[in-house]
Amino acid sequence: MKFANLIGTTFDLYTMRAYHALFQLKKRLLIVLLPLCCGFLQDTSFNQKDFEKLKPIVGTWLNKRERGDIYETWMRKSEKEFAGMSYTLTNADTTPLEKVRLYIQGTEIVYAPVAAGQNGDKEVLFKLKSIKGNRFVFENLHHDFPKRIVYDFKSGDLLFAYIEGEVNTKSRRVDYPYKRIH
């Protein structure tokens, strides 16, 4: 065998071993990452039983503030939908803030607010991303602010809600501690 052929054969052998090792590494990574990805996908698949966990929202909630109390009122419209509205009450003046549809469609639970005078008075959809105990996290990373809406039922009469996201590249969070009044 000529020296050039020997070097070419040796080089091809090392190249094949390198490709085989790389293929094995990719295969192992896929085996590790695939279950993780599936785990994330499962977090966003919900059913009617999950939707029923939102029943405590029905009623009227009050957030006492110096610059005007905020009220949120929710009712059950159907087996698959809740309807809510929030407004401020300052002295005798009532100012609507938003109307909200909270519904299940297929395997998604959607929080769909229409903020007064914003987004062309159209719904902005926030999809439920996780349920941990009595804490519900809705998310829309494509929306300007907020990107997340969280409802955390602390007890039958206490609800802690907040919105968060970025404003001018700075993190911002607004808390809404509510107490049930009806």
What is this entry, summarized?
This protein has 182 residues and is of the alpha+beta class.
What this model shows, in words?
The protein is of the alpha+beta class and 182 residues long. It has helices at residues 3-43, 48-52, and strands at 59-63, 69-78, 81-90, 93-105, 108-115, 126-132, 135-139, 148-153, 158-167, 170-180.
- Overall radius of gyration: 26 Å
Fraction of residues in helices? 25-40%
- Strand line-up of the largest beta sheet: 1-2-3-4-5-6-7-8-9-10
Shape label: globular
The chain-level structural class is: alpha+beta
Main pleated sheet: 10 strands, antiparallel, barrel
Share in β-strands: over 45%
State the total count of DSSP E strands. 10
CA-to-CA gap between the ends? 93 Å
What's the average pLDDT? 86
- Low-pLDDT regions: 32-42
> For this entry, what is the oligomeric state of its chains?
single chain
Order of SSEs = HHEEEEEEEEEE
Figure out the total of helices. Answer: 2
